[in-house]
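Could you please consider the sequence and fold following this short note?
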Amino acid sequence: MNAIEKQLQLQPNRRMTYTMIIVIVCLLFIWSITTIHFENISVNGIKIVKNIFVGLLNPDWSLLVNTTTAGVPYLLIETMAIAFLGTIVGALLAIPLAFLSASNIVPKPIAFVVRLLLIIIRTIPAIVYGLMFIRVTGPGPFAGVLTMSLTSIGMLSKLYVDVIEDLDKSILESMEAIGCTLLEKIRYGIWPQLTALFLSIVIYRFDMNLRDATVLGLVGAGGIGAPLIFAMNAYKWSEVGSILLGLVLLILLVEYVSNRIRTKLVKG
């Protein structure tokens, strides 16, 4: 009976907590709506929106079948290559950083310093890195690859660490008891457990990089983003429609293939 009485006493407190949360969310929602200014919408704006949708629904099919460097297929392949190469470089560089930031592998002070470095890397948006690398290497795909690599290091290291810290510690303890070195523990006790999960994480990151590579193209870091922004600035909405259609088809294809691979990796 004591347990039941305690539960009954806790129920009013829970109701009060839930009520407070709902009230706070509603107040934040109302406050957010007040920042929207509808008076800036003009008749001209509505007409432009109409033209945008008409153009998007009537894409320029000649761009979709154009096999030159100005065609959508070539630009999509370039975008995918930027995302793929950036993901591979970032994934390889993230492995040692992940082990150095795992508190169950290295001393806690070292893990803290490396984690702080990775947090700093993740804090800066990809588009800022893109603008920085463009100043160094000039506009083009190389700046995009460098940006993808650096942003991938920050995120992949974090995901790697979560997997490393959930490892079966009994294996590490057994290897430590027989006098194995740190490298031997990583090579024979940790790495066999991580391979499938690491590959799954890398594939997931590639999906994200494929979308980010398009955004980086808007600032001149190669790929399909630059033609997209040029077409939008010139109000060529049929060209925008063809580029977006190509992007949607590519992302759907990559999403389907990557989901199948991740499922097999996790199950197998």
Residues 2-51 form one domain. The chain is about 80% helix and 0% strand.
